[in-house]
Design a protein that fits this description.
Length: 444
């Protein structure tokens, strides 16, 4: 082995997927080994997120710590990848001159060349370009053998919501070809992966040409994957309400393997704010979508993302969001205080909501969502859930943790060897964020 690398990941599941691929690249072409201990690493990579200011600033404090390690290990290479790298480029090297490599979400497959150039005595290497999806053609096969795996099917975003950096950091929407995705899924299934989660910033906008040149959509792709024998459960995230087509909704009625959980970010319940955000739908249109989804799959659980304190949000606008939360009955969701991002249109909008009011709205929203989360959990009491075992519980080493079809975490006693398998668990208690259950006799 030629040394060790350490990767710290911030941000969304796209970044987690990319970090896994970066590790594959370093293992395959540098013959390196991954470590959890930054102090023993020869390469430290930060896969960064810039969606909110806090996430971005966190990277610079972590970089400061890596710099101290470099003092005692002069050969150590420090790299910054992901969305901060994409947005800041050369600026990172100006602000932190000890950084050796800067690469974007579309260029990490070029890490071997960047490392070689830097080691050959070159200056810090920066490559944050957006080549046509070439990275997937240059990635080694993954060695994952967990029960569940991510497959990225789309890159970028072309929605340009007024507050969001993603279209600028990851480029416009680009779909991977159908055959390419199927090949990756088949390889995972052959390794024993039973649950596949398709990833993209707006994964439901996926369009790809099939082998006979026809244009396929996500509904088609989900059907094709569900038809593979080894696939037991299918998920996809994140979806945009405007891309939730009739065809996609129909898949919920037809394919039981598709999980009864949809993450469908709404952001706000006020039409005025939704328009200022450039989301392209009204609260009524969103509710109508939810109605259709529930008609196709009555037990579907919906989770969402919310931004509170968007520029100009009044108490009335916020109340409209609270009303929508109640009407839809969202399960556990992500909610954020609006964070102005340089270069986005919303950052130029008049914004006079005091921070205390934003914080108070966030608190109220989260309390409401928490109550609804409890209601979803209570409704599951006594039911038998099909749980995919993730492994030993983080809180209690004698317990297993897994996920039910509706994405809820379930803890129960069982043998560690069950990791990666689907088991039946009877739900016996609803705690604040998780459920407890008892393992049922295994079915053959
Ligand atoms: N593509 C997805 C999510 C992208 S980012 C979607 O559109 O739904 C994840 C979440 O971060 C967003 O849904 C939004 O709620 C939040 N977010 C994005 N930009 C933000 C900003 N400037 N301030 C606060 N939250 C933001
Ligand atoms: Fe950002 Fe909007 Fe794209 Fe989501 S859809 S990534 S919020 S621009
Ligand atoms: Fe963050 Fe980039 Fe994902 S900004 S949320 S890591 S797409």
């Amino acid at each position: 082995m030629a040394g060790k690398f350490y990767i710290k990941t911030f941000g969304c599941q796209m970044n987690e997927y990319d970090s896994g691929k970066m590790a594959d690249v370093l293992r395959a072409s540098e013959n390196m080994e991954q470590t959890d201990a930054p102090e023993e690493a020869d390469i430290i990579l930060f896969n960064t997120c810039s969606v909110r200011e806090k996430a971005q600033e966190k990277v610079f404090s972590d970089l400061g710590r890596a710099r101290l390690l470099k003092r005692s290990r002069p050969g150590l290479l420090i790299g910054v990848g992901g969305c901060v790298a994409s947005q800041e480029g050369e600026e990172i090297v100006k602000r932190a001159p000890y950084v050796d490599l800067v690469f974007g979400p579309q260029t990490f497959h070029r890490l071997p060349q960047l490392i070689a150039a830097r080691r050959a005595g070159g200056r810090p290497q920066v490559d944050v370009s957006f080549p046509e999806i070439e990275k997937f053609d240059h990635l080694p096969a993954s060695g994952a053998t967990m029960g569940s795996a991510f497959v990225s099917v789309m890159e970028g975003c072309s929605k340009y919501c007024s507050y969001c950096v993603v279209p600028y950091t990851r480029g416009d929407e680009m779909s991977r070809p159908f055959a390419d995705v199927m090949r990756e899924v088949q390889a995972l299934v052959a390794q024993g992966v039973g649950e596949i989660t398709l990833l993209g910033q707006n994964v439901n906008a996926w369009r790809g040409a099939t082998e006979d040149g026809e244009s396929a959509d996500l509904a088609f792709l989900l059907r094709a994957i569900a038809a593979l024998g080894g696939v037991q459960r299918l998920r996809y995230t994140t979806s945009h309400p405007n891309e939730m087509t009739r065809r996609l909704i129909e898949v919920y009625a037809e394919i039981p393997k598709l999980a009864s959980h949809l993450h469908l970010p709404v952001q706000s319940g006020s039409d005025r704010i939704l328009a200022a955000m450039k989301r392209g739908y009204t609260a009524l249109e969103y509710k109508s979508l939810v109605r259709k989804l529930r008609a196709a799959r009555p037990d579907i659980v919906l989770t969402s993302d919310f931004i509170v304190g968007f520029p100009g949000e009044t108490e009335r606008d916020f109340e409209a969001t609270m009303k929508l939360i109640e009407e839809v009955g969202f399960d556990s969701s992500f909610s954020f205080v609006y964070s102005p991002r340089p270069g986005t249109p919303a950052a130029e909008m008049a914004d006079d909501t005091p921070q205390e009011i934003r914080a108070e709205r966030l608190y109220r929203l989260q309390a409401r969502i928490g109550e609804q989360e409890q209601a979803v959990s209570r409704a599951m009491l006594g039911s038998i859930q099909r749980v995919l075992v993730d492994g030993v519980s983080r809180k209690d080493g004698l317990e297993l943790a897994g996920r039910a079809d509706n994405n809820r975490v379930v803890n129960f006693s069982g043998a560690p060897g069950m990791a990666g398998r689907f088991v039946n668990v009877k739900i016996t208690a609803a705690l604040s964020h998780t459920l407890r259950g008892e393992l049922m006799a295994e079915q053959i």
